VOC family protein
Amino acid sequence: MPPARVSTVVLDAPDAHELARFYRRLLGYVVRAEEPHWVLIGPPPGSEGVALAFETEPDYVRPVWPTRRPGDQQMMLHLDVEVDDLAAETSRAVEAGATLAAYQPQDDVRVLFDPAGHPFCLWTEAGR
């Protein structure tokens, strides 16, 4: 086993529970732990995937992508979510509460924003 490994990605949000609900719908994850200002979700037992945690940050500022002006809150990271059917999963993500980004840099990737404004990408192996 390596000396260290990433176990969880944590995203700040104005409401941790609201953002956790969105990613549960998007990914089919289940709640693993929950506190008033923090939620941990992950794949159902027996499934693979990276756990996600959400922490309420009262002073949260939505990132701007792509960055337009110096001083904009920059995107610090984004999640890449592999899908089989890009069009269908993009529609499903929007129905779950995501917003499609106006700028789409690649044909085999869709950039979306979660309800807290974090960019994430849906992508398909078909184009790679």
